[in-house]
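We treat protein structure as text, and this decision shapes the records that our systems exchange. This encoding replaces a full spatial description with a residue-level series of whole-number codes. Below, we set out a record of this kind in full and without editing:
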Amino acid sequence: MHGREKLVGQITAEEWRVGRPAGRRSWLLTAKNKEVAGRVSDLYQGEAVCGASGGDLYTRKLHAEGIVVLVAGVANVKPRLTLENERGLVHACDGTRYLPPMVDEGAPCGCPDNPFERRAAARSGAGPRPDARLVFCLAAAPKLGEFSFRSSAWHFYESLESVSHEVERTAGPVQMELVLREQRLATRSGLDVSFTYPEVRSVRRLSVTKAGLHLAA
């Protein structure tokens, strides 16, 4: 597990609107260090977010289409589903088995295998929603330290669930890319609507040498 104190920052692609998370059309970086925030901003066409920074945190909007990251191993890939109520967290699983801190850790969670049924259960409040997380270094500046990415989007959860199997098979570090997708839909009333969601793709195995991480041949 990676404690928050070990992370130098977090990148998201969501914001809260009317009490619900909604997709952003740009990445949002929150860093603990001004120099880290500035370096990442330079790398990914960033700009300060008015009124968002303060205290010990620095916030930047990043305009890159994709962010290439280095992931140390499958322990840093967490395609998680959670459900909370007034008592707090009541369900945490990977879609198949319970995850910590559930007392039934490792036991079958009972979630549907079918993704449409999973989403329907979540919409009705009877099933968990995505709380998917990824811990990584930036490929463009790995020495800055580890960042996290967290999303409640189903598309991100499903893409992360898919690549987690590839990462597990490599048994070592991999390179992947975080991208933002835009999807357009026509409503029954004829209106065109669009929404943005993150995905992870392009998993490539890495090898480790004394010089650091580099792409395997």
Helices lie at 34-43, 115-124, 154-170.
